[in-house]
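Morning run. Coffee first, then this:
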Amino acid sequence: MSIDIETAARVAKLARIKVEQDQLPELAHAFNDILGFIEQLNEVDVDGVEPMVSVTPMRLKRREDAVTDGGMQDRILSNAPDAREGFFAVPKVVE
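And here it is:
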């Protein structure tokens, strides 16, 4: 696939990037270089290769997945203009 100057102008317009007319050939060339690199990546055989989280093998820090109430109900409700029975109170909007 090759990007011409008109396509480069359309991509710039869709991306809301102002590109001067004299810079469009250079932009089209850059797009073609990027697409060429992507084609090279598509040629690599990655069957059987596991995805990596990092380039260095390391175990991620994990916390216990426990459900809590947060323990801050009073602090949170102190910011409310109106709180009743441990909940935010809001005006009725639907009859």
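The chain has a mean pLDDT of 90. Good start to the day.
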